[in-house]
Amino acid sequence: MQTTYIKTSDRISTTDTVPIQMGSTKAQGGIHRLLAAEQEAQHIVNAARNEKTARLKQAKEEADKEIAEFRAQMEAEFQKKVAETSGDSGANVKRLEQETDAKIHHLKSEAERISNDVVHMLLKHVTTVKH
User: Which GO-annotated molecular functions does the record name (predicted)?
Assistant: First the structure.
């Protein structure tokens, strides 16, 4: 019978190997079971990765859909407010013109009221000589 060594870790060393008799059907059956278990584990890992990728893709699609709905809702509210304020723009302009005219009239009347006092004060300061 021939003796072969199976590596038990990634390090290469004679102490890391286990001798197995190739003629032993029990050992070969164990190796085959280990290989089959490793393949099955790899299939399970791959399936889990694929499932995770699919879930992430689905979550992204759902998030994009929610964002689009929210954006549409916000845009509709904005357009509604724009329509409300622009519909009254003629009234707003007229109101602002009236307020401006009233303020101008008030300022002119105040200027007329105090203009004589201001002129007298200026003349007093200009003509007074200080030592």
Answer: ATP hydrolysis activity; proton-transporting ATPase activity, rotational mechanism
